[in-house]
Structure formats: structure tokens, C-alpha cells
Amino acid sequence: MKRKVLWLALSVFLISLVLSSCFLLRESLTLDSNPQGVQILVDSQTIVTPDTLNLQYGSHVLQVLSTYLTTSNYGGSPNTEYVFSSWSDGSTSNPRTITLKADQSYTANMLIYYKFLTGSNISVTPISSPVSQNEFYLYNSQIQITAPKVQGYQFSYWIVNGQAVTGNPLTQIITLSTQATAVYEQIVPPSLPSNPYPADGSTGTSTNVALSWYTKSNGASVTYSLYFGTSQNPSLYFSDLTSPEYTISNLNYSTTYYWYIIASNGYFSTKGPLWSFTTQSEPIPSAPTGLYYTSVTSNSVSLSWSPSQYASGYNVYRSTNETNFSKISSTSNTYYTDTNLSPSMTYYYEITAYNSSGESGYSNPITV
């Protein structure tokens, strides 16, 4: 009887020992990530990779958490985000349940997002990848940043992670956390137009004149409007000039012209002073050539000649003794008929050309 009781007690002890060993059996679980430093929730415990846990035999739940880190001096804090992509065994489930039957290891492959920090008024447009969240952008993706127009200021350059970079808009490839700041320069009006050519009040200026002037742009692009004419309140002659010069041809002789410039940089305009110049006098015409008679009657002679440059008219001279010539008429034509002549009388003729500047020498004489 005592043997039976002893045997029964021993059996119960052995069964308890076996059952207890089943519950106390533990296995090794190694968790890593690429890159490392990622938070993973194992059941209710949070670990940071890489780490190795001793867990009970059986089922466990793994969940990779999005992890925020500060990995550089730019982009604010935190400035780097790791987002789960897949497990080393090909699974993309997150969270996932595993059955731990032996020592096992898993690596979480992560996508890396970097923060691109700018001012609140800067436009950021993803080109090749959408934003993850909170201004974090996928590694090796592209974004375009655009500095807005600011009244009274002109965009100059960017400071990107401490380096000066030009271009607006500017395309950036995300390879690290980044901080970008737009630098502006205050726009001031262009300086007063000065140093005109021809000089103000000058005379004897060519009728083909290359106007020029000087304006300091003060850092902004400047265009010019030219006001020009014979009135002291000249009208707009040409606008949107991009250089401080303009050529005008075929002006009138002995004429005073007035002009001024308005310089504009798109924000401010500066009106210059009124300038003037007077063109040269018209050259005295050359002497007519080729004088001949086209017909002769008993009491008239018809004359013709070649025109003279700059001539506004012609004077006809006649003599009966080849020395004492008298002006008998003026004409704007290059021909003339002398009438009421005496028959059988010899006449001598010469022609001169004239304009406002004076009279030319005599043409070749002819005898009729």
C-alpha cells in the first residue's frame, strides 16, 4: 500500500516537472534593422535595434515603429525618419505574428526620409516622391523649392546647409536632412538718369544721333522708357529698352529736340531731368551741274540741269555780256523757261542752288 502511494506521488511529480519545463522553455530572438536604431515593439516591450531577446516558446507579435532621429545639424530636430518597408524574409506585414520554435532572427528593411526645413512661405513641390509626413522626404527623391516674390525685395540666393546656392526655383536631391533659407535684397529705386549724350544744351549735333545716359541699377534689372520730340513736354518715343542707349536717325536740321528717361526696376521708377540738343545746320548745297537748254525760240529759252544735294531751290542768273549776271528768278524745279527775250540777242545763263544755310557756287555757264 505504501509502495502504491509512493509511486503515485512520484508520477505526479514527474508529470508536473514535464509540464513546467514546457512552460519555461525559452528561445533566442535577434532583431535588427537596416539602418540600425529602429524601434520595434515585441508584444508589449519596445526595443531598439540591434537587440536579442530570450522569449518563451510560441507566438509573438512584432511591430516596427516609425522612428525619428536627429542625425545632423540641419533640418531641425528630429530630422530623420525611418519607415518600415519589408522584413528580411520577404514579408511586408507590419505588425506580424511569428511562432518561436527555435533561435530566430529578423531584420527590418527601412525607407529613410529626411526633413527638408524651409520658411513657411517657401513653396516645396515633390518631383519624384510624395512627402511622408511633417516635411520628411524620401532619400534620393527630388523636390523643387520656390522663393515667393516679396514686395520691395528681390530674391538673391539660397543658404542650403550653410552653403550659398543660386537658382529660383531650385531643384534638390534629398540625400540628407536639409535646411534652406531664402536670402533677399531690398530693392531701391534706380538712380537718377545722368550723363546724357549729347550733352544737355549741345548744338551742331548730327541728324543721326546715338542717345546714351547712365543709371545705377542698385541691384535690380532696369528697363528704360525714352520720351523724345520737339516739344518741351515730349511724348513717349520707345519703351522697354534694356540698355541705356538708343539711336535715332534722319532728324531735321537746325532743330531743337527735347528728351528725358524714366528708369524702372519693376518696383520703382525714377524720372530723369529734361535734356535738349540742337541739330547741325543743313549743309550748303553743291553747285548744280549739267546745265543745258532744251529748246530755243525767237523770244524764249528753256533750261534744265541736274539736282544738287541739300538744295531746297534754285536761282536762275542771266547776262547779256557774259560778265554781269543778274538773278532773274527762283524755282524749286530743275528746269526753267525764260520768256520775253529779244530776237537775235545772245544770252548767258548760270544756276545756283540754295537752302536755309546759304547759296552754292555757280553752275557751268551756257550761251544761247
UniProtKB/TrEMBL annotation:
UniProt-listed Pfam families: fn3
SMART domains with a match to the protein in the record: FN3 (SM00060)
Organism in which the protein naturally occurs: Mesoaciditoga lauensis
InterPro entries reported in the protein's UniProt record: FN3_dom (IPR003961), FN3_sf (IPR036116), Ig-like_fold (IPR013783)
Domain Fibronectin type-III: 192-284, 287-368
Identification of the protein by name: Fibronectin type-III domain-containing protein
